Amino acid sequence: MTETKRYTSVAIALHWIIAIMMVLLVFVGWRMGDMAEALRGGSTEFTLDDVRFVFDMHKTFGILVLVLSLIRLAWRFMNPVPPMPAGMKPWEVTVARITHIGFYVLMIGMPILGWITASSGQAPSFFFHNEALPIPDIAPNNRSLHEVTEFLHGRGG
After folding, report:
1. Which of the listed ranges 2-6, 71-75, 153-157 does the model predict with the highest average pLDDT?
2. What range does the domain containing 139 cover?
3. pTM attached to this predicted model
4. Quick check: is 1 in a domain?
5. Number of domains, the chain
C-alpha cells in the first residue's frame, strides 16, 4: 500500500465546506437567539416569519453539516490519511488525534443535539423554510428532553 502524502481533494473540500458552515451556524445561532428574545419582548424589528425563517435555515444547514460530516467520516475510513509529520513528539501526536476525534464528535453531535431540540419542541421545522419539505421529528413533543438538548446545543455552540 502506498503511503499518502496529503489529503485528497474531496477530503479538503469537505473540510472547508463543513468548517465554513459550522462557523456561520454558530454566528447565526447566536443571532437567532437574540431575534427570538427580542420578538418575545415585544420588538417589532422582526416578524414571527423572520424568526422562523432564520431558525429553519439554521436547522437546514445543521442537517447538511451532519450529512457532510458523515460523508467525510466515511471518506476518511475509505481513503488513507497522511501520516503525522515525522518530527512530532508522542504527546503532540496524541493531542492531534484527540483533537481530530473531538472535532468529529462536534461535527456529528451538535447537529444531532440541534435536531433533537427542534424535534422535541412545539414548532414544526422545514428544509429551506419550505412547508412542502418538513424536517422529520426524531423526538416529538418531549419537553424535558427539549430543555436538556437545548441547553447542551446552545452552550456547545
Report:
1. 71-75
2. 9-156
3. 0.91
4. no
5. 1
